Amino acid sequence: MKTTNASQRLRGLIRRNISLFGVILALALIMIALSLTTGSFFTASNLSNIARQSVWVGVMAVGMVFVLGTEGIDLSVGSVLSLTGVVVAALITGGQNIFLALIAGLAFGSLVGLVNGLLITSVRLPPFIATLGMMSVLQGIAYVYTQGIPIYGLQYPEMQMWAQGFVGPVPIPVLIMLIVWVLGFAVLTRTPYGRYVLSVGSNENAANLVGISVNRIKISVYVVSGFLAALAGILLASRSEAAVPTAGSGYEMDVIAAAVIGGTSMSGGIASISGAVIGSVLMTTIRNGLNLLGISSLWHQVVMGILILVAVAIGSWRSGESRGSAKKGSIFNIVPKKISIEKSSKTSD
């Protein structure tokens, strides 16, 4: 009897976390394949490079999970990353205190998220349109201010340490990503706020009926996304010791892909912080492997696009299988059944 119960629990654990286990398995297989086909993949310097390059996407992917969890999308994260670097660099090179400049950068990203949230909840723009427009506005401001020329002059220890320093053997940016991972996981799976986020994505009408402030939840997830995109922008500027106006170009697709590959549904209600972070490592590993194999960068976007299509297709299939016709049925059946922390957010991580 005990053996049977243990076997049933194991099968249930695997079934509930199939996306997470799937992305871990995919990452392991790709790493094994690259180690067999390239002689420099499993070197300390290359693995360290992968870990560092995963940070920008990984940090933003955590914020994207919250947004996707509400059935939203944030296409402005790449532009927030770029313009945050420009804002911080402009303040520092203008003689402002470095730490105040960093705080201003994080506040800027949060403000952009707030504006995105208000456009969606108050102006009633679709998330895709609101954040697409914001992406264009922010990228245009970055170009206009810099004239397309990077801002150099960030060779200050207080700035360099965030992406180039170490705590023992662990690079500080990797440590920051781990902290963001743990905090995001805890908030999504261990707090009422996390349940509210997923309830909004699972069924907005049901969430309203049970007293959840849907608009506040929606605004808050975009603020979180903007804040984390700004944090990634600061880390990237620290790494390159410059603010490049095109630094975040294309990152929004990598971030969305990392979240979806990790098991977060674009239809809302299902989210995985751990899957998103591991998905970011998978994306970075694939890019690294393509470079090591000498494949032209022109093909990188083709490969990433295929990954996105496959991930979204699998996610849609899983979402349809697990929910059935729940969203089309009685809203009173959805709240306890689909937003339960034990059956959605907790088990997906």
Describe this structure in words.
This protein has 349 residues and is mainly α. It has a single domain, classed as Orthogonal Bundle (ABC transporter involved in vitamin B12 uptake, BtuC). It has 16 helices and four strands. The chain has helices at residues 2-16, 18-37, 44-69, 77-93, 98-121, 127-146, 157-164, 172-190, 192-202, 204-209, 214-240, 251-261, 273-292, 300-323, 334-338, 345-348; strands spanning 151-152, 166-167, 170-171, 242-243. The strands form two sheets. A two-stranded antiparallel sheet has the order 1-4. It has a two-stranded antiparallel ribbon with strand order 2-3. β2 (166-167) and β3 form a beta hairpin. The longest helix is centred in the middle third of the chain and has 27 residues, at 214-240. The two termini are 28 Å apart. It comes from Schaalia naturae.
Furnish the topology, listing elements before pairings.
Elements: H1 2-16, H2 18-37, H3 44-69, H4 77-93, H5 98-121, H6 127-146, E1 151-152, H7 157-164, E2 166-167, E3 170-171, H8 172-190, H9 192-202, H10 204-209, H11 214-240, E4 242-243, H12 251-261, H13 273-292, H14 300-323, H15 334-338, H16 345-348
Helix pairs in contact: 2-13, 3-8, 3-9, 3-11, 3-12, 3-13, 4-5, 4-6, 4-11, 5-6, 5-11, 7-11, 8-9, 9-11, 12-13, 12-14
What oligomeric assembly is this protein in? single chain
Largest sheet: 2 strands, antiparallel
The main sheet orders its strands as 1-4
Shape: globular
Uncertain segments of ≥5 residues (pLDDT<50)?
Answer: 325-349
- How many independent structural domains? 1
What is the CATH topology descriptor?
Answer: ABC transporter involved in vitamin B12 uptake, BtuC
Mean pLDDT over all positions: 87
Distance between the termini: 28 Å
The CATH architecture can be given as Orthogonal Bundle
Order of helices and strands: HHHHHHEHEEHHHHEHHHHH
How much of the polypeptide forms β-strand, as a percent range? Answer: under 5%
Rounded to the nearest angstrom, the radius of gyration is 20 Å
The structural class is mainly alpha
Q: What is the CATH class designation?
A: Mainly Alpha
